[in-house]
């Protein structure tokens, strides 16, 4: 009997020890997990070694929807901005870069793709910019796949389709903001960059609609190919999580097999080249027609174009908050057809870094805009300076705090 009592006591002791060990492991696991009340596990950088998944095995959710189940990361402290400049676009590109520098907070790295004859001019101008440490740049040649370079160069405008190859060329860049040369920033680049953190688990890029008003829309009236949404999308301002773009497998109408970005471009061009009008933008519309879950859509004030006002104001968000990014397509910065757009361009082009922004930029601009009220865009000229006024006020407030 005494022996049985000893055995029972020994078993009880082992059970208690096992229970205590189990509780300690549970507490440790809770401490490591987010929301567990202790130290939070740091989000893994999807571009870091070991973070990439095997090709074709990126987590696919229900109904075949591809999902990215890694934790969201904080955007890099340095913002990457890309532009493609060919022909007579040197001055326009430099003016765009100046507008990006004026208000932005975090450091900027410009990735400038340009024809060889423009490189020295870009270097001479950018090296004179007085923001050492805040702005860096890299110049690249125009580069297309050698076996199809001729076809890509002829697509729409010279060099325009270069943007399609940015995820394949800038392999070490995780996220990128691409803009056309005729873009002007009227608020910090930081604010559009912050949309990266708002992407859901399936979104890989962000663009704005081509039109707000279907009655004047181009795609819904004339397109001979699939396009995104009700009126298509405009690719002049395109925010990209390039790590996600490179690893995604895209649905398409050429094969039941999903294709990666690098596999998709040439077959897409071959199928639709006789039916597309706006080149690479049309190809992007086709891609996101088949993969709508992958696109985040900006409100119109992030890509405000002449179509938003030349037939009457049709960007309600800009009426309420002002224009955040101005897109002077159709060459309106360089002719007299839309003097409201040209006035903004000239004001930023002629502004000298370090001058008082109110007296040297805002006030002269408002005076010029008041002269354009004979046009539809001029009648709503206040939307062109509403956000600009706020950006200047915020910039001076930040400088006051930093003293």
Structure description:
This protein is an alpha/beta fold and 403 residues long. The chain is 39% helix and 13% strand. The chain is built from 15 helices and eleven strands. Strands 3-2-1-4-7-6-10 form a seven-stranded mixed sheet, with helices on both faces. It has a two-stranded antiparallel ribbon with strand order 5-11. A hairpin with an 8-residue loop joins strand 8 and strand 9 (259-260). The chain is globular, with a radius of gyration of 26 Å. Residues 19-76 have low confidence and may be disordered.
SSE layout:
Elements: H1 2-32, E1 79-85, H2 90-103, E2 108-114, H3 119-126, E3 135-140, H4 149-153, H5 166-169, E4 175-179, E5 183-185, H6 189-193, E6 205-209, H7 219-222, E7 233-241, H8 242-247, E8 249-250, E9 259-260, H9 261-272, H10 280-290, E10 295-297, H11 316-321, E11 325-327, H12 339-350, H13 357-370, H14 376-379, H15 382-402
Parallel strand pairs: 1-2, 1-4, 2-3, 6-10
Antiparallel strand pairs: 4-7, 5-11, 6-7, 8-9
């Amino acid at each position: 009997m005494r022996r049985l009592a000893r055995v029972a006591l020994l078993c009880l002791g082992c059970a208690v020890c096992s229970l205590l060990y189990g509780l300690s492991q549970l507490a440790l696991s809770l401490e490591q997990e987010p929301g567990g009340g202790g130290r939070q596990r740091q989000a893994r950088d999807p571009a870091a070694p070991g973070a990439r998944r095997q090709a074709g095995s990126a987590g696919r959710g229900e109904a075949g929807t591809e999902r990215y189940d890694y934790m969201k990361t904080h955007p890099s402290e340095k913002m990457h901005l890309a532009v493609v400049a060919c022909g007579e676009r040197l001055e326009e590109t430099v003016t765009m870069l100046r507008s990006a520098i004026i208000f932005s907070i975090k450091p900027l790295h410009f990735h400038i793709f340009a024809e060889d004859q423009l490189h020295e001019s870009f270097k001479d101008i950018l090296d004179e910019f007085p923001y050492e440490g805040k702005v860096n740049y890299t110049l690249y040649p125009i580069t297309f796949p050698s076996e199809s370079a001729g076809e890509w160069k002829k697509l729409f405008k010279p060099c325009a389709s270069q943007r399609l190859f940015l995820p394949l060329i800038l392999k070490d860049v995780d996220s990128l903001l691409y803009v056309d040369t005729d873009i002007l920033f009227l608020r910090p680049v930081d604010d559009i960059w912050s949309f990266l953190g708002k992407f859901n688990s399936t979104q890989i890029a962000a663009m704005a609609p081509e039109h707000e008003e279907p009655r004047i829309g181009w795609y819904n009236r004339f397109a001979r190919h699939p396009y995104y949404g009700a009126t298509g999308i405009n690719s002049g301002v395109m925010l990209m999580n390039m790590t996600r773009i490179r690893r995604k497998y895209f649905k398409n109408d050429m094969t039941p097999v999903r294709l990666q970005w690098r596999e998709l471009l040439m077959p897409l061009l071959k199928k639709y080249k006789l039916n597309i009008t706006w080149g690479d933008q049309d190809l992007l519309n086709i891609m996101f027609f088949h993969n709508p879950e992958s696109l985040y859509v900006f409100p119109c004030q992030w890509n405000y174009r002449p179509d938003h006002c030349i037939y009457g104001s049709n960007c309600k968000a800009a009426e309420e908050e002002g224009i955040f990014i101005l897109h002077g397509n159709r060459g309106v910065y360089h002719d007299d057809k839309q003097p409201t757009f040209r006035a903004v361009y000239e004001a930023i082009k002629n502004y000298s870094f370090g001058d008082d922004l109110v007296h040297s930029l805002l006030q002269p601009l408002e005076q010029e805009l008041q002269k354009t009220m004979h046009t539809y865009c001029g009648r709503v000229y206040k939307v062109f300076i509403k956000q600009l006024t706020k950006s200047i006020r915020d910039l001076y407030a930040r400088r006051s705090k930093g003293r």
